[in-house]
Every structure is written in structure tokens, then in C-alpha cells.
Specification:
Elements: E1 2-6, E2 15-21, E3 24-30, E4 41-42, H1 43-46, H2 48-52, E5 62-63, E6 72-73, H3 76-94, E7 99-103, H4 109-123, E8 128-130, H5 137-147, H6 158-161, E9 164-168, H7 172-175, H8 177-189, E10 195-199, H9 205-208, E11 212-214, H10 221-234, H11 240-246, E12 247-248, H12 250-258, H13 262-269, H14 273-285, E13 289-293, H15 295-298, H16 303-316, E14 326-329, H17 336-341, E15 348-349, E16 353-354, H18 358-368, H19 383-391, E17 397-401, H20 405-408, H21 412-421, E18 424-429, E19 442-445, E20 454-457, E21 462-466, H22 479-489, H23 501-512, H24 524-530, E22 533-534, E23 561-562, E24 581-586, H25 602-605, E25 612-615, H26 617-623, E26 630-635, E27 639-647, E28 655-659, E29 692-698, E30 735-736
Helix pairs in contact: 3-22, 4-22, 4-23, 5-16, 10-12, 10-13, 10-14, 10-16, 13-14, 19-21
The structure holds ligand MGD (2 copies), iron/sulfur cluster and molybdenum atom.
Length: 745
Amino acid sequence: MVHKTVCPYCGVGCGLSVEVSGGHVTRVRGDESHPGSRGMVCRKAVYLPPSLIAPDRALRPQFRPDRSAPFRPTSWDAAMRWAAAGMRRIVDEHGPDAAAFYISGQLLTEDYYVVNKLAKGFIGTNNVDSNSRLCMASAVSAYKMALGQDGPPCTYEDLDLADCFLFIGSNAADCHPVLFKRALKRKESDPAGVTLIAVDPRRTATAKDSDLYLQVRPGGDLALLYGMLHVLIRDGLTDDAFVAAHTVGWDALRDAARDWTPAVAAAQCGIPPEQIERAASAFGRAKRSLSLWSMGLNQTTSGVDKSLMVIALHLATGKIGKPGCGPFSLTGQPNAMGGREVGGLAALLPGHRAVDNPQHRAEMARHWRVPADQMCPRPGLTAIETFEAAAEGRVKAIWVAATNPAVSLPDLKLVREGLLRAELVVVQDAYFPTETTDLAHLALPAAQWSEKEGTATTSERRIAYLPAVGARPGVARPDWQIFAELANRMGYSEGFNYRTAQEVFDDYRACTIGTDMDIGGLSYERLRSEGPTQWPCPAGSSGGTARLYTNGRFATADGRARFFAPQIRPTADRASSAAPFSLTTGREPDQWHTMTRTGKILQLLRSCPEPYLALNPTDAARLGVVEREWLEIEAPGRGAVRLRARVTADVPEGTLFAPFHWGAHWHDGGPLNAVTTRAWDPVSKQPELKLAAVALRKCPGPGGKRSIAQRSEHVAAPPPSTLPEDAPAADDTPTIMPTRSPVHA
Ligand SMILES: Nc1nc2c(c(=O)[nH]1)N[C@H]1C(S)=C(S)[C@@H](COP(=O)(O)OP(=O)(O)OC[C@H]3O[C@@H](n4cnc5c(=O)[nH]c(N)nc54)[C@H](O)[C@@H]3O)O[C@H]1N2
Ligand SMILES: Nc1nc2c(c(=O)[nH]1)N[C@H]1C(S)=C(S)[C@@H](COP(=O)(O)OP(=O)(O)OC[C@H]3O[C@@H](n4cnc5c(=O)[nH]c(N)nc54)[C@H](O)[C@@H]3O)O[C@H]1N2
Ligand code: SF4
Ligand SMILES: [Mo]
């Protein structure tokens, strides 16, 4: 049988054709009929089948009353009885805010909806935050502040139309490869007319394929953006009629940009003034300009300001709401967008509502049939605050789903302290063990992609239906069912008697009617028959909405977009004599986050078999470091990590880079996030994962036994019939290989 679905990895949301035989997914290829990806996929998707049958799939609940004891398998009944009684007691004794849920952009919308309803509607706590806090929070805040509503205004078709692409803080070639391929195709169609610009401290695969590479000093983007704006104004490249008709706040920003000559900007961001001129000129003179940004801007303590400035470049030039134009925040996770829509962050309620808005609370209270005063009017704890509160004993129960915070959160010492102090730690994951289940009382087996049905939204606001096509391993359950069972057992049965995911979706859909993301016109049936659809999509509408703000009317009360004139603030960590290097972090093309799925696939490990620390040859020579020598980086007061050196001119002097994928189960030198800071953006509360000041020294190897080969119990042997060694997909499938896989010497 062949089924259509979408990819569970990145927010591009490529359409997949999935072959199923004997209850197992045996082959994955690109779905040519999918409007967003048109048959293209990358290697991660092709190697999904073996990840589903890995030997460490979580098959049954595992429990231990105290964390010094080993886990023992238990039944769902016993597991949920213990968990619900514990939650009940903690909420009754210490109040609703003693419980917290830490969830994920990799849940389906239905999963998110049920956990939100339980916590925010019934328990009465807004302590529901997701790993999107580490990911999209800054872009979300900026969209709302500048345009009045969260949600990228663009559509993927804009990649086929733009004349100028500004990739800023995005390594799309590795992290959103199918979208990047589309930009490259556009370039090929008109090499002289199309300009690709990449802004990154590191010469990435994206930078190598761009026409203009701006090597920004880590954290220096705001100065660059001010410099670009200065040139746009100076050269008369702004659209004054658009600004006058559709915006507020221009004068203050224009005045603020006055002093930012390219020379002044260059001194702050490290990019030569002539390159700033060229970038601004390409952006301003192009008929259609598209900016694409992600973690290099979002994951900083000025992430909101930087996102606001990207949006401002588009507003100032009127390059928004038009084909090929716009500020396009690339979503990281497959359903981070759905999470934003369904209220999966601590300040949100479903349908783009806010917990601190009395009318929004009243609407949701009515919808959920709960007393309005049962709902808390204050935003709940965000990701890092949750673990701080746990470490201080204020949060006593932490329920984690579809994320591995013991690897992915910054300042991991805090995460460990928080989890160990909590009285009840439950982790829902598709695999067991993970670095986070190592710190739990109860690990619950979750069904994952292909084993459960539901919906997810891609970066371009496109909602897709994902069918359940394969068998669930052991007694694994969909996340929404686990949350609904918790609700029932906590005594809230009236709101949670869903029998199917479709009933959950219908409940959710109804509460979006009349909001700015109305999906009243969608149903499982329609998504199945018509395919993925872009919101808004109210009842009676045909198709969805490709672009937002096409009439120049924004989602603010007066219909005008807002300019802001942000001040430049220093990064939280600054290089000092004790910590003279700037460490930045990111991803490898063939690995996904904490490696629970991609880490087991030998073909995917090949392009980067071990973690590394990239440093410039001059720094290496000064320290007498050779390739693959062991190095220790230490962030004073936080922690240290040991990694092997990778000497490369791709990083500038004084800057280091390391991928964050390898957690304690994969590498004895320690997880990278032992050294990153929890300092966050004051508006979005997104932590500065992109900059840590560190000391660097040579060290002996960590001496542990763990290596990929020795972890072979967790390395799945892919069925050879379905996965030819080096041909990741059938020849008729347009497959994307990473543009330049970093190959270790
Ligand atoms: N292969 C793969 N793809 C993925 C993922 C994955 O794990 N693996 N994860 C998905 C998710 S959830 C996300 S959020 C996205 C992330 O996608 P990206 O944001 O593209 O990925 P990152 O590597 O985290 O960071 C992007 C770049 O920011 C650069 N950078 C660091 N500091 C600065 C700075 O100060 N300024 C600028 N301009 N750039 C800076 C880094 O060098 C890096 O190249 O990828 C998604 N896609
Ligand atoms: N230093 C540094 N740290 C970072 C980043 C960085 O750039 N630098 N990036 C940050 C960003 S943007 C992100 S998004 C995070 C990602 O960090 P995490 O969310 O911690 O990473 P994943 O490994 O994707 O974790 C997802 C978990 O869910 C499990 N899972 C998969 N499918 C399902 C399912 O359907 N149900 C359930 N219950 N479980 C499932 C997987 O096995 C895995 O354990 O990392 C952040 N951390
Ligand atoms: S680009 Fe790759 S990881 Fe992202 S959705 Fe497409 S196939 Fe999946
Ligand atoms: Mo992310």
C-alpha cells in the first residue's frame, strides 16, 4: 500500500509517498503531487523506515518510584494510576502552578490541543511551554509586534519568484534543504538577475552557494541590518508611499538609522562597508526580495529586535504581501507552526489567543465548558523558567513530551538539578532510554510518525493531514490519548471523552472560527481529498490563503504595520581573558537534534560520524592543535565539554563552532549544552544558544567507552532490500543530497 503524508523532520514539511508492507513502513519517497515540495526530499526522510524499527523503540511504560532504582516495565493502568494520583496530589497540595508540561514542536496539533486544554482549561495552570521557545519564540514575538499577528506572510512559491534572497542566520542548505534547492533553481533560471546573500559567522554550505557571503561577527546582525537600512534610505530605495499608507513609527526608525553609515555598521558587525553596500543595494534594487531567517537571529538575547529589523527592511521597501517578497521566518520543527496556532506556548491559548486577554479566556472557557475564573490570567513558565522553578522547588511535577531537554536545553546543569529535585517526572518518548528518561520516574511509550494520525502545519502555514499507516510498537500510544487519559484519571472526564484524533481536531477547529487563523473550512475529509491547505481557510472558502497582507492591511487594530527602532545591546556572554573564544552552535545536515532517530542510521552517520569543535587554522597554530586532537571548552561557572578539533578556515579567528546533536548517550566528552547560557531575550524569553564565551585548552580524551560502534545495540541495521547503501532513494525520486556534506579528514 502507498500512502501520502508529510515528513516528520523539518518545518519545510515535504510531501511523502510511503510504502507499507506487513504493517511496517518499508520505503519513503517524495510525493510529486505535494504543492510545497513537488517530489523533493532529503536523506533524513529517506532513512525514516529503519528509525521506526530501531531496537530501542519504547514498547511499554517503564517505572521506578525512586531515581536511584532501575526502571521496571509496568502496565498502562499502573503507570497512569501512579502519574494521575501524583499530579492530583501535587496540584491539590501546592496549587496548579506546581505542575508544568514541557512539550514539543514535534507533537501533532491534536496532541498539543489536548494537553493545553487539560492544563490551561482544567488544571488551571499556563505552565505549558514547548521547545519552540528555543526555536521560534523571537520570530513569533516580532511578527506579532510588527504585523499584528503571528505567522509568516509568505508562501513557498515566493522562492520561485524572488530576485534577491537574504539568508540571515539560516543555514538552509543543510537545515531546510528542499527550500534551499528551490532557491538555487531560481538562481539557475536567471543567473545574472538573481542574487543570493548569506549572513553567517561560519562559511556554511548556504554561504558557499551564495553570490555574496557576509561573515558577520557572532551576534552582530543588528548593526548590519541598520547599515543596510541606512543605505536603502540614502539611495532612495525605500517605498515612501507604502510607508505612508500602511505603517506607523517610520520617523523614529529613519532617524535611528541616520548614524548607521556602512563604516559605522562595519565596525560593529565585522563586515566590510562595501559588502554592506552591495547587500543593501541588491536587496533594494531587486524587484522582489525575500528574507529567510532562523536560529542565527532567533537564538540570541536580541532575537526579537533582529527579527523586527528584518521585517522593517521589507516594510520600508514595500516588499511584503507581494509575490516573491517578504520576511519569511523558516520554522524549524515539523509542527512548531501548529503549536503556535493551537496555543502551545505559556502565554497562548488556541486560535492565536492570549492567556492575559480576558475576552480570549472567556471564549475558551465557554468552548471548554469550564468556569472562566478557573483559567489563570498570567502567562505560565517558559522553558528555562520551568527548570529554574523546579530547581528551586516551586514546580514539583514536570511532564515532558516529544523533546529531550537533557540534551537540547542550554545550561544543562540547571536542567539536571530541576529534574532531580522534582517529585514527579514523566517523559513521553518514542524511544527508551533517552538522556531525559534517565532522569525520570516514569517513561511512557509514544507512538510516532506513521503510527498515529493527526495534523501539522508547515512553515508556509500549510496544514497537512498525516495518516496512521504502520503498526505501533508494543503498547505505544498517541500522545493525545496519553494526555486525555491523564485528564480522565485526574477527574476531568467530562472534557476528554474523545474517541478519535478527528474528534479532537473538530473540537479545536471550532474554536478557531472568527479568529485571524480561522480553519472552520477544514476537516480531515477535506485535507485527505484536497491535500494540505494554507490557513486562513474559513467555512465556505475554496483553497487556502497563499500570502497574507496582499492588500497592505495588517492585522493590527488600525491595519497599519509597526516599525520599531531597537537599541543595540551586548550579547549576554562576552569574550574575556578567562573565556576568550566565542562559541556558536548549530546542526549537521544528516542529523536531527538529539539523534534518537537519525543517530542510529549508519548511512546518515557517515557524513559526520563524531562530534567536533571547528576552529580557525590560525587559532589552531597558536595553540599547537592538530586535526582530531582533543580539546576542552569551558564556560566559567557553567561547565566543560571535550571534543575533537576540526581545523577549518570556515570559521573566523576567535570563533568556534560545534553541532549540539551528541548527548551523553552518544559521546563521553559531555553534551555541548553544558557550556551554553540560559540568558534569554527579554521579550521572547528565547535563550542565547548561539553564543557562549569559552576558554579553550588541549586535554586528554575523555577516556570513556562509548562510541558509535559500541552503541551498536542502538544502531538499527536498515533492511537492505529497501535501503541501497549509497543510493538513498529510488532513481526516479528526485533526492537532494546535502550540497556539501562535511566529511571528516
Ligand atoms: N539537518 C537538520 N535540519 C534541521 C534540524 C536538524 O536538527 N538537522 N532542525 C530543524 C530545526 S528545529 C531548526 S530550528 C532549524 C534550524 O535551522 P538553522 O537556523 O538554519 O540552523 P542552525 O545550524 O541552528 O543555525 C543556523 C546558522 O546560524 C549561524 N549563526 C550563529 N551565530 C550567528 C549570528 O550571530 N548571526 C548569524 N547571522 N548567524 C549565526 C550558525 O553558524 C548556523 O550556520 O533546522 C531544522 N532543520
Ligand atoms: N546548542 C544548541 N542547542 C539547541 C539548538 C541549537 O541550535 N544549539 N537548537 C534548539 C532548537 S531550535 C530545538 S527545536 C531543540 C530540539 O531539541 P529536542 O526537542 O530535545 O530534540 P529532539 O531530538 O528532536 O527531541 C524530540 C524527542 O521526541 C521523540 N519523539 C519523536 N516523535 C515523537 C512523538 O510522536 N511523540 C513523542 N512523545 N516523542 C516523539 C524523539 O525520540 C526525541 O527524543 O534543540 C534546541 N537546542
Ligand atoms: S527538507 Fe528533508 S527533513 Fe525537511 S521536510 Fe523535507 S524531507 Fe523532511
Ligand atoms: Mo528548532
